[in-house]
Amino acid sequence: xxxxxxxxxxxxxxxxxxxxxxxxxxxxxxxxxxxxxxxxxxxxxxxxxxxxxxxxxxxxxxxxxxxxxxxxxxxxxxxxxxxxxxxxxxxxxxxxxxxxxxxxxxxxxxxxxxxxxxxxxxxxxxxxxxxxxxxxxxxxxxxxxxxxxxxxxxxxxxxxxxxxxxxxxxxxxxxxxxxxxxxxxxxxxxxxxxxxxxxxxxxxxxxxxxxxxxxxxxxxxxxxxxxxxxxxxxxxxxxxxxxxxxxxxxxxxxxxxxxxxxxxxxxxxxxxxxxxxxxxxxxxxxxxxxxxxxxxxxxxxxxxxxxxxxxxxxxxxxxxxxxxxxxxxxxxxxxxxxxxxxxxxxxxxxxxxxxxxxxxxxxxxxxxxxxxxxxxxxxxxxxxxxxxxxxxxxxxxxxxxxxxxxxxxxxxxxxxxxxxxxxxxxxxxxxxxxxxxxxxxxxxxxxxxxxxxxxxxxxxxxxxxxxxxxxxxxxxxxxxxxxxxxxxxxxxxxxxxxxxxxxxxxxxxxxxxxxxxxxxxxxxxxxxxxxxxxxxxxxxxxxxxxxxxxxxxxxxxxxxxxxxxxxxxxxxxxxxxxxxxxxxxxxxxxxxxxxxxxxxxxxxxxxxxxxxxxxxxxxxxxxxxxxxxxxxxxxxxxxxxxxxxxxxxxxxxxxxxxxxxxxxxxxxxxxxxxxxxxxxxxxxxxxxxxxxxxxxxxxxxxxxxxxxxxxxxxxxxxxxxxxxxxxxxxxxxxxxxxxxxxxxxxxxxxxxxxxxxxxxxxxxxxxxxxxxxxxxxxxxxxxxxxxxxxxxxxxxxxxxxxxxx
Length: 805
Prior knowledge:
Blueprint: E1 2-5, E2 28-40, E3 43-54, E4 60-67, E5 73-81, E6 84-88, H1 93-105, E7 122-129, E8 134-144, E9 147-148, E10 151-158, E11 164-174, E12 179-183, E13 197-200, E14 204-209, H2 213-216, E15 229-237, E16 245-249, E17 252-257, E18 267-274, H3 282-296, E19 303-309, E20 313-315, E21 321-322, H4 325-336, H5 346-362, E22 371-378, H6 389-399, E23 404-411, H7 417-425, E24 431-434, H8 440-451, E25 454-462, E26 468-469, E27 475-480, E28 485-491, E29 498-506, E30 511-519, H9 524-529, H10 537-554, E31 560-561, E32 566-571, E33 576-581, E34 589-595, E35 600-608, E36 619-628, E37 633-638, E38 641-646, E39 649-654, E40 659-663, E41 666-671, E42 675-680, E43 684-691, E44 703-707, H11 723-727, E45 731-733, E46 743-746, E47 749-752, E48 756-762, E49 771-777, H12 779-782
Parallel strand pairs: 1-7, 2-11, 18-19, 18-22, 22-23, 23-24, 33-49, 45-47
Antiparallel strand pairs: 2-3, 3-8, 4-7, 5-6, 5-8, 9-10, 10-15, 11-14, 12-15, 13-14, 16-17, 17-28, 19-20, 19-21, 25-27, 25-29, 26-28, 29-30, 31-32, 31-44, 32-33, 34-35, 35-36, 36-37, 37-38, 38-39, 40-41, 41-42, 42-43, 43-44, 46-47, 48-49
Helix pairs in contact: 3-4, 3-8, 5-6
């Protein structure tokens, strides 16, 4: 994420300092760089603070550039400039609270978690300040540390960018289960060997890293820092031979389940390997090396085969075969003889793999307790056969059995990773991007190791309904050795003394039933006495596990416009949707929101498909303009770029970026190739989705969709195609027939006896396929529902207000 703040009017100067030893040629110095992290039962709260001084006589930019682990949630960012603190909230606060209240009122699980929403890996703040200015940057984020290959790894990207007068990393671990081991690998290199200190007790540990300025230097006379990499703390906890560990505190429970003392389940595994021309060279060499190791790791009771594909699809064996030494040796020779060339036919390759597994099951070849999986390795988009990604997804989903998992490995920087990730997640698997370099082989082997040891299948967690509520996902397709399953929920600790759980699963030799019973106050004494423990860790962990569902609901029940362009207006009181299309002409600009009192205008420019189909030209929004008159700011979003304008000043991001721009308390956040969120003063927000199509599609074009949350507070004079509908207290009377061609408004009652009941696509949750929502359709471009004719809403410019609405 990138945050750009421009030229704050600051004129205070600091007295001369004497830290020339850490001062760069640009007269900028880091006075201190501190990272403090506290882990309470896998929940890590991390603070990164940097104090920087501009000692130059002229103004220049001070930069705070940090890497945030993927999946972490930022909950606070502040800048203190010469004693004045500026606070930035990453989330849309009022909207989140409104969503929380609505979810609670509907009886749904709800929690307020400040989310980065961008799933970002980079956070950058840039501040232009006068000479002599001192700035303190500070960011706080939290993450749940996942267990992989038997270890929890807390990774802190440590990249101060220059020497720091004081540099420290301080990590505290509090694990009520007890610590089995803690170690700090030398991930920053031999340069820093022996500097880290570690103290470990039964249930807590402390790690400290404080290199001096001399130790930070790349060489004794160098002015550059050697601190550039990841600081890693690895650990695992003690486990008893029972059905996991229940940790209960402050009305929430967390259930950790990571059994290791089980026999592996047999695997039925299909390796589907892309051998098209783009895999030639290092990618193929590394893939072959990895596959030779992976094949050698198969167990005697595993069944396997290999499919390689370019424009054609080939089977090493027509059926699954046992992993005998001779078969594995033949498979290695086959892999070794592959010569990449030709195109990429992903669709047929995956359908072939699915067919082989289904046939093996039909013929009774598979152990009833075995786990079936497909591992796809590819570096590119399909170029042969079925080319449409959504169709490939549908084909796989319709044909793959429910007990088969699909895992995807995307090799290289230019792979369509989103597509491979969707394929995996829709079919009980996971995906990983692997960069096509010298590390490809080791990355592939590490990924395979995570899924190579299935220990359980069909895992179900059960709790007494009268004691718990709002339980997170409690049913899991597989459990792999070295990982961990985590379930959370609320517990009525005021009325129960113990919480019982029952886990059922299929193991290698039989069905498994595991029971555990835990005192609801068992952790109270320990956690209340531990000064560094997060007292809300159970609540935060529960919220973290449910955040994806809550974020999906965040944009629920909004007026929205997508392709055609079609409009979906949600009537709050009747809980019904009214849908209508606008059949405008390419190039025309339609006003969506016109609110002169609040100074907000939103307009969309229509584009057309490449050609007519069935004598009709489909139309879409290709450009959307936002005008915030009171701030003097304009935002233009096209299918290529996102531009913020302030008078003569202009700055842009492309859809290939993940980043943000802040100006005058207007936040424009971009998630790569997915969406733009615009937030004004945290009180009003807009969402724009990007719909990409295949570049060579003969008809369709890229287009935009816009969504507005019901929490936006427009004035009573708001107008526009969807603006007027926002302020009217509609009451909808469902139609009794389908013959009347008009729509009548009687008072605030909308009486439509013509409306056809049907389904419309909503693309917020599923950007590719969309989700069908129930609608009452108003034909003839919304006639009767829209005031006047739709042509009354045409405006001359992208930032125009409606005249005389």
